[in-house]
Recover the amino acids of this structure.
């Protein structure tokens, strides 16, 4: 592939460009992979808190599948369907799958909106859905505006194949990272000044990594702005079914269908959905593009051939999603379990004075460790992060990898483990924070006793006492009890 | 998507450009869809012979799945694996799947070569495999050389996303459509003269639509040419396990591993494989890229995220493919059934003097109807084809849609139906041919009695007797018994 664009891409990927989940996190994932925590067999290992995976309610799905052998073509009860399903290759997808998916997409949004099965387009996971949309909506070099912090793998999903540029809309903790029209206009104008053609605004609602939902007003503002400037509004709603507290979820579908954004051009609105998060089935590779634009539906449908969902999986899910009674029970129970997990985790952090952004959705909290930074820089954030990964042995994700402009925020996933593991993780964080507070207080007392010593040690001549203040690294010696925390 | 390349593509697709399976065949598929044959309920319907689908041995797989409930995560026996499999999202694929696939790829090639699991890259079907390879190997506007006739949907697989151009290497019936070095050099030089950069040679071996395998000498010639000119050799071997007669199948893997192409640059050789044809599982969307080039493996692997196979399906297939005893039995029995079907079909055609290209592989025959054309043109071929679709009610595929340069060839699929349906199809063809022969003989006798009438009727003033000679359309009146053949 000498000289091809793929070769250039590969070098960029290898250099860690454009794929946070692989690049920025690489160190943390490596640490986890080399020494994964196990409650019984490796209590000294790294706990994986960098994976937005939902394991809390898989037992319900597992039980449903055992109770419904007819839903699998690989059982005596389901085998009569084997031939039809195995041979099925229509890129429109199984009609019963699209029907059930459309119905479920309404159910997961509280029945407040309906979805048309003929607008449901199948893709290979949310990755495939974003890639397909980017291909349909933009040319290489065109840009999407994306509010920060945002899901790092959008760089892969929207850029690797389609060559879309992602330009940040800067959001801030001062208003809980709410997207404002001012920030949007500023990003849009900035792109135009650079001569970049803006083709879309890409939002995740509920937000990954914030764990919050977007309010109706913001959504209406976005729809109005998109209409006004004739840019697309791409709404990633893959956590729609993972909202566990008030305020409830408002889908863009609801906003445009209920007239919250008068005059809004529906042709510019597109939803990406998936079963990877709400159901914890990322392996099944179910991505959905739902567009209000007929041309996009037609084009995306044709492109489906590149990323169809296995018909074995379509068949199974069609039957499960069509079981409305089970789905209602699943959604309620999943929300209940997510809420319990979230509340316990956040309360556990609060015990040592660590706050999280108030959240009501998702599989993670947006943890505020700004107070623990040596200085307010991204370098200091990464320094703290390395300590958390290698010494505290928690693979969390630094805000930097989500393109967050304020250092000191971390995404911590809590739904990919059992209760006991989560308690171990909480314990490790709390001990780490307490030790940090203790060292800091001691250092401050020490500094107070020597008010005249103002000069800092030279680089390379760092003293132990300086390290104790300047870097959290120094908080933990290799023999630190934290290393063996459990 | 105003103004985007996707919009342009969509117009091209809508206009029928670049996708034979959809465009050229559209008429035939529509005829089939509107009136599908059914042995019991619609004996007057159109028989689908345009679908290269293997239904002959699915009963074996179905039985295996029922006998091995542990292979499905949706059974009581397999459910303990549900959580692990449903959550699995590593783009490398399940290790056991890659292991089993590599082993099976050797088995299907008679154990003469071995495949390295670390070079097995998963894609969404053969479509995804070709798309991934095209992305890795070429830039938009670069070309692949493809021997004719070739699989029409390569236009989709290689062009729609990656923008590769396909340039024909003209092959001819005079040597049974064998690819010669002269034809290859001529196509290569022609492309260079046009200023097009040739990046690869794309072959299907066994060939779709020819139903033949490529000999060792031709493969060695291709490998040498690729090395000499530094172009890639992409070998689509998706029918590797559907070879049912001598000469046996020779994989490019065998040629390069056994030294049949001395000095060959392995970095230029790539294989596409799939389970859609050999197993009749197109719905499962299993495509494989196997490359001897480390960079291509690395890049294709990264791109896997866009077209992963459902982990439910990976798990099932990993267990089935690893059952070497079953696989051996399946391959032998499948070949036996394919041979029986092929032999019966070809013999049935021979009864009325219709020949097929001698074939030893695939799910179809390349039927020679040149003698039935009004004239040696593609228009005449399509005219005959329309008669076959609408009056004879067989949806076969005209050579034109395979970019065949010689009018009068048709691909006829015979493995997507049961024995009885195939007999009905054979019967229809034979009656059609006999009627044609009868009318032709009569017309010739009539012409012989009027030797002096040389002028042809004017356009628009066509007489019935002229039509009887000039167009097969006239052979069948709307009340023709052929319409109700069964």
């Amino acid at each position: 592939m000498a000289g091809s664009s793929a070769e250039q891409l590969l070098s960029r990927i290898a250099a860690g460009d454009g794929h946070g989940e692989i690049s920025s996190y690489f160190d943390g994932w490596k640490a986890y992979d080399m020494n994964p925590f196990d409650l019984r067999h490796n209590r000294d290992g790294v706990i994986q808190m960098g994976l937005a995976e939902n394991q809390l309610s898989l037992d319900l799905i597992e039980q449903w599948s055992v109770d419904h052998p007819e839903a699998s073509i690989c059982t005596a009860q389901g085998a009569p369907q084997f031939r039809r399903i195995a041979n099925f290759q229509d890129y429109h997808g199984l009609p019963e799958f699209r029907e059930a998916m459309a119905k479920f997409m309404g159910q997961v949004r509280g029945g407040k909106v309906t979805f048309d099965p003929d607008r449901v387009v199948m893709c290979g996971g949310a990755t495939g859905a974003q890639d397909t949309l980017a291909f349909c909506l933009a040319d290489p070099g065109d840009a999407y505006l994306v509010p920060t912090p945002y899901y790092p793998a959008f760089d892969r999903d929207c850029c690797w194949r389609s060559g879309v540029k992602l330009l940040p809309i800067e959001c801030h903790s001062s208003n809980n990272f709410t997207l404002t029209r001012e920030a949007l206009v500023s990003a849009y104008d900035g792109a135009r000044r650079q001569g970049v053609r803006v083709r879309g605004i890409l939002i995740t609602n509920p937000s990954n990594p914030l764990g919050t939902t977007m309010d109706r007003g913001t959504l209406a503002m976005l729809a109005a702005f998109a209409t006004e400037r004739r840019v697309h509004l791409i709404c990633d709603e893959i956590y729609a079914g993972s909202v566990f507290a008030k305020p409830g979820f408002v889908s863009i579908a609801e906003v445009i269908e209920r007239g919250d954004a008068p005059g809004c051009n529906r042709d510019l609105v597109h939803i990406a959905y998936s079963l990877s998060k709400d159901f914890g089935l990322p392996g099944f590779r179910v991505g959905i593009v739902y567009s209000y634009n007929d041309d996009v539906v037609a084009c995306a449908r044709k492109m489906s051939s590149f990323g169809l969902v296995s018909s074995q999986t379509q068949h199974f899910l069609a039957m499960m999603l069509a079981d409305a009674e089970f789905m209602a029970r699943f959604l309620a129970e999943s929300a209940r379990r997510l809420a319990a997990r979230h509340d316990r985790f956040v309360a556990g952090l609060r015990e040592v004075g660590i706050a999280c952004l108030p959240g009501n959705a998702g599989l993670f909290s947006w943890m505020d460790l700004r107070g623990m930074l040596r200085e307010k820089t991204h370098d200091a954030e990464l320094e703290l992060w390395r300590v958390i990964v290698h010494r505290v042995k928690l693979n969390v994700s630094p805000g930097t990898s989500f393109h967050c402009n304020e250092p000191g925020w971390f995404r911590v996933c809590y739904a990919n483990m059992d209760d006991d593991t989560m308690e171990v993780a909480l314990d490790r964080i709390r001990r780490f924070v307490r030790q940090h507070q203790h060292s800091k207080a001691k250092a401050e007392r020490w500094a107070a006793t020597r008010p005249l010593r103002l000069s800092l040690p030279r680089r390379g001549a760092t003293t132990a006492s300086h390290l104790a203040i300047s870097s959290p690294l120094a908080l933990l010696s290799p023999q630190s009890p934290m290393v063996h925390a459990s």
In short: The longest strand of chain B covers residues 198-204. Chain B is about 40% helix and 10% strand.
